Amino acid sequence: MAQTINTSNLVSENADYLLAFAMKKISDRELAKDFVQDTFVSAISNIEKFKGDSALRTWLTSILNRKIIDYWRKAETRYTDPISSFFKGENGDGSWVIEKRPQGKMPEFEQEMEKAERHDELSDCIEKLPEKWAGILRAKYFEEEKAEEISKDFDVTTSNLWVIIHRAKLVLRDCLEQKMNH
Amino acid sequence: MLYCSEVTQELERLKFEEGTFIKRFLLRFHLLICKDCRRYESDSKALDHILKFQNPVNYSKLTSEEIEAMNKKIIG
Question: What's the rounded Cα separation, in Å, for the pair A4 and A50?
Answer without folding.
Answer: 8
